[in-house]
UniProtKB/TrEMBL annotation:
Protein name: Claudin
Ion transport among keywords: no
Keyword field contains Chaperone: no
PANTHER family: CLAUDIN
Domain of life: Eukaryota
Homology family: Belongs to the claudin family.
């Protein structure tokens, strides 16, 4: 079974990844307007920015609707994985059996890794669409990747790292032998119990 220190690090990485995924989903900065060509950007001294408000989720593009749904599922899965980890971690006393703690920790690690993949896939898909449209000469309005794309990648990597560490440090005992091993010598075959006449 993994040590308590490794599990605490995994909890910290998982919480950071979960917060990053929530911010990635909540903040509308997936695509930002690109100023290319002869456009000159002038910043206002007040620091105000103008956002376009969407009254409905159905107004968003299909890739952004799908990405948001996948990230929400990822947030729910990661929250569940962290709760399961708290129940089966070495630093808690919710479960006493060491073998059961290892299995619970392994399940939490797999949940965090799947949650990380569910963040990286839609973020990478949206980034691909943004780069494709940016390089397409037929698209007049050029958009660049916003900060949520990069935040989503970082959150996904943190979640996969936390889940991978948990899976590597959760060793489940296999078999019912209790950890005993039998060794045989290669020089002489084992003696037979039969007496030959």
């Amino acid at each position: 079974m993994g040590s308590s220190g490794v599990q605490i690090v995994c909890v910290a990485l998982g919480l950071l990844g979960l917060v990053g995924a929530i911010v990635c989903c909540a903040v509308p900065r997936w695509k930002v307007t690109s100023f290319t060509g002869n456009n000159i950007v002038t910043a206002q001294s007040t620091g105000q920015q103008q956002c376009k408000k969407y009254d409905s989720l159905l107004v968003l593009a299909a890739d952004l609707q799908t990405a948001r749904a996948m990230i929400i599922i990822s947030c729910m899965l990661c929250s569940l994985g962290l709760l399961v980890l708290f129940a089966g971690a070495d630093f808690t006393t919710c479960v006493e059996d060491e073998d059961t703690k290892a299995k619970i920790s392994l399940v939490a690690g797999v949940g965090l890794m799947v949650g990380g993949l569910l963040v990286i896939i839609p973020v990478s898909w949206s980034a691909h669409n943004i780069v494709r449209d940016f390089n397409d000469p037929r698209v007049m309005r050029k958009l660049e990747m916003g900060m949520c794309i990069f935040l989503g990648w970082a959150a996904g990597v943190l979640l996969i790292l936390a889940g991978g560490l948990l899976c590597c440090c959760s060793r489940v005992n296999k078999g019912g032998s209790g950890g005993t091993a039998k060794y045989y010598s290669n020089s002489a075959p084992p003696a037979s119990n039969k007496n030959y006449v």
